[in-house]
Each structure stands twice: as structure tokens, then as C-alpha cells.
Amino acid sequence: MLDSFAFHAGQMLVALLLDGLLGWPAPVFTRIGHPVSWIGHMVSLLDRRWNRDSLPALPRRLAGMGVVALVIGCVGGIGIGASCWLPHNGTGIAVGGVLAWPLLAVRSLYTHVEAVVRPLRAGDIPSARKAVSMIVGRNPDTLDESGITRAAVESLAENTSDGVVAPLFWGVLLGLPGLYAYKAINTMDSMIANRTPRYRLFGWAAARVDDVVNIPPARLSGLLYALASKAPLRAFRVMLRDARRHRSPNAGWPEAAMAGGLGIRLSGPRLYAEGPSRDPWLNEGAPDPAPADLAAGLALYRRVILLTALLLLLLFFTGSPLYGAGR
After folding, report:
1. Vertex 187, ends 182 and 191: CA angle to 5°?
2. If DSSP codes are grouped into helix, strand and coil, which group holds residue 247?
3. Residue 24, CA distances (Å) to 8, 108, 259 in order
4. CA angle 25, 27, 30 (to 5 degrees)
5. How crowded is residue 255: how many other Cβ atoms within 10 Å of its Cβ?
6. Rounded alpha-carbon distances, angstroms, from residue 317 to 15, 164, 165, 320
7. φ and ψ of 138, to 5 deg
8. Contact at 8 Å (CB) between 15 and 107?
9. What pLDDT sits at residue 318?
């Protein structure tokens, strides 16, 4: 009989393959939407009802903590119910993989970044700015070719962790409940954990929980990028040296590995909606990225996905009865 890690790894491998091949089909989205948007509706409803400007500081922060607990409990509870219902066999792996599939962003991330490559190669800066605005939080209006490329490469690296590696990590570790709970946390982080006055207190808990649950997968993502790059030693060295210089406790790991792997500099000063940010460079001294580096980043991303699939296959195989019988 499969052990729990192998069972979960099999489910996550099925989900990875499905999302990599199909994404979330447009007809399905048109008909039923997307699970992340369902979570988003719940967060928006609680935000409107509980995040009141009239609340003093402490009650407002406590209200935000209540939202985090409620959303994680509801979404994770659905995962628990699904896990209890699934048989611990091949059918459970297949059905669990289908249930996990919508909560990955393998293909959509690639598609969104690829949409930036095409206008950049054609020299169409306005269209490239519009495409990159779909995946980054900074103001794209003043970005030149290098700035657009840098923003897209950073988004690719960071979202590989948030949208692919982290869901798979918690899915392997805790099964569907872990995957579902992580996606609830990540969705709240993107919606209410920003630094605007409305969310500085209310979104505090969402931001802190997201930071904690992303500690292991962010470092794993950086390692995968380093191993899959054409300059693994340089990527690993840059990651260890520069990752902690990033404004985020987690995003710096895959971004620094990407910078080292591609031989470019990332991060640095940028302009957000809430104002300018004077962040230090990752891999300072390297050249600014060019459009060709974004295409190279997508090729590196494909290798990371392949390496992740092989790792899941290894986890599945080593936990199967066949592995024990062969020793």
C-alpha cells in the first residue's frame, strides 16, 4: 500500500500534468468560474463587512485575524472532506489530482509571461507595458524595455514559488487540505495584505501567515531554479548571497537564483502604486535584462517544471510497494 507522501505525491503529479497540458480551459471558466475566484468572493465579502474604518486599531487587526482563521477553516475543511472521501488507491490519486488541478498556475503563469515576450520582441513597448501590468504590482507606465523585462522575469520567478512549488509542497506534505489551505492563504495575501491604509492593520495577519507558509517552498523554488539553470554554481552562489537583501523574506530566493542563472540583475528601484521603492539589486554588477533574457527565463521555467515533475515521480515511486519489494 502507498504511504501518505507517495499517495499525495501521485495526486500532485496528476495535477501538475493536467495543468501543464490544459491550464484551466476557458469554457470551464465561463461556465463555473475558478476555485480561486470563489475564495476571492468569500474574502471580498468578509472585507466589506468586517474591515470598517470606524474600528480602532486593535479590533481592526483582530477582525483581520478572524478573516484568516475563517477562510482557512472553510477552504481547508473542504479539502479535509474530499480527502476523507477518496479511496487510498489509484482512483484516489486520479480523482485527487483532478481536485488539486485548478489550484496550480503552471500554464497560466507561462501564458501571461509569454504574452510579454511577443510585443517586446516586436518593439511594441505600449503593448508590452499592458501585458506586464497583468502580472506585476508596480506602475508600468514609465518602464522601458529593460524595466518591462525585469518586471516579467521577477514575476515569473516569484510566482513559480507562489503558484506552483508552494501548492505542490503543501499538497505533498498534507494532501488536499494542505493544498487548499495554502491557496486560501495565498489568495488572502494578494487581496488584503497590501500596505495601503485600508489594509495595514486588517491585512496584517494574512501577510504574516503567508510569509510563514512560504518559507520552505520559496527556498525550494530557488534551489530548483539553480539546479535547472545553465550556470547552477553561479545561481546558487548569488541566491545565498543576495536572497536576504530582497524586501520580501521569501521572493528573494527564486528571484536571486533566476538572476544568477541568467546572468542578469533583478530587483532594484521601482515604482509601486503606494510610492517608490529603493530596493537593492540582486546580482548587482550584472547587466540589465534584455528581451532575450525573458525568453531564456521561460525556457528555464520549463526545466524547473520538468524537474519538479521528476521529483514528484521519485517521491511517488519510493513510497510504492514496488520500491520496497525491490530492495
Report:
1. 150
2. coil
3. 21, 8, 30
4. 110
5. 32
6. 17, 21, 19, 5
7. -80, 165
8. no
9. 85
Which runs of consecutive H residues, i.e. helices, occur in the chain?
Answer: 4-22, 26-32, 35-50, 57-85, 90-100, 106-122, 125-132, 145-160, 166-192, 204-213, 215-228, 232-242, 252-262, 291-318, 321-325
Q: Virtual CA dihedral for 42, 173, 104, 10, nearest 10 degrees?
A: -130
First to last CA, the chain: 16
Burial profile 12-35: b = 16 or more Cβ within 10 angstroms, e = fewer:
bbbbbebbbeebbeeeeeeeeeeb
Q: CA torsion sign, 232 to 234 to 240 to 244?
A: negative
d(CA 303, CA 313): 15
User: Rg of the chain's alpha carbons, rounded to an integer?
Assistant: 20
CA dist 184 → 49, 240, 269 (Å): 19, 30, 30
Q: For residue 243, give the DSSP letter.
A: G
pLDDT of residue 325: 45
pLDDT at position 12 is: 98
Q: pLDDT at position 274, please?
A: 55
Calpha distance 10→4 (Å, rounded): 10
- Which region holds residue 320: left if phi is over 0, alpha if psi is between -120 and 50, else beta? beta
- Tell me the pLDDT tens digit for each residue of 261-295: 999 999 887 655 555 677 899 999 999 999 999 99
- Residue pair 266/282 in contact (Cβ under 8 Å)? The answer is yes
pLDDT lower than 70: segments of the chain? 1, 270-276, 320-327
Q: pTM score > 0.90 for this model? A: yes
